[in-house]
Amino acid sequence: MSSAARAAFVSVLASLVALATAGAQGTRVQFGLGASLTVPTGNYHSDENGDGFNVGWQGTALVAFKLSRSPVGVRVDGVYGENGANDQLNSELSAAVGAPTTGKTKLLGGNVDVTYDFRPSSGGLQGYVLTGIGFCKVKFSAKSGNVTADTSRTKFAWNVGGGIAYRVGGITSLFFELRYFEPGEFLSYKTTRFPITGGIRLGL
């Protein structure tokens, strides 16, 4: 485990202990849904031969916990996304199979993040940052006609990012965030990506 991952893990544990032992202060809970464009980076976007993957999509469901008088909280996310292979990679797959073939990666994972909320503005706009760790199942599939072949692996992952939230009602807020995810290497690709996410959160 890298030093960054160890630091994130320790932060998550510390926040969970704080939430568990300070229940008397009151805990706020939020639920949310988000949709993302996911931008591949590095050789996941394009390797030295031009093989790689295009911008894709991702869906996120989240539950966030925060002590009522603390800016620090914990957020648990579940994510699922897909990125299609670019033309160069599809061309090489088709040549190898001998028939038109398309490739795709699918990512299914979960994360536990420590969050920090900045003081909200008078207009109800609030910034935040977050970082954490999790696991991601990465699957690559190649489809030719009605036949699909795939392989998958579950990888340790970490992420870091930030965003803004805007309260639009008593318990409703909209959020926009940018995060960097690194779930490790799979089939020689380091499947790093930037999800650009917009969504809604409900809760106190």
Protein structure class: alpha+beta
Strand content: over 45%
Strand elements, count: 10
Q: What number of structural domains do the residues give?
A: 1
Question: What does the secondary structure layout of this molecule look like, with pairings?
Answer:
Layout: H1 3-21, E1 27-40, H2 42-45, E2 56-67, E3 72-84, H3 87-97, E4 102-117, E5 125-144, E6 147-167, E7 172-182, E8 185-186, E9 189-190, E10 193-203
Antiparallel strand pairs: 1-2, 1-10, 2-3, 3-4, 4-5, 5-6, 6-7, 7-10, 8-9
What does this structure look like?
Helices cover 17% and strands 60% of the residues. The model has no long low-confidence stretch (mean pLDDT 86). It has three helices and ten strands, in the order H-E-H-E-E-H-E-E-E-E-E-E-E. The radius of gyration is 19 Å and the shape is elongated. It has one domain: Beta Barrel (Porin). The chain has an eight-stranded antiparallel barrel. A two-stranded antiparallel ribbon has the order 8-9. Strand 6 and strand 7 form a beta hairpin. The chain has 204 residues and is of the alpha+beta class.
Describe the structure using short key phrases.
single chain; 204 residues; alpha+beta; 3 helices; 10 strands; 17% helix; elongated
At a glance:
17% of the residues lie in helices and 60% in strands.
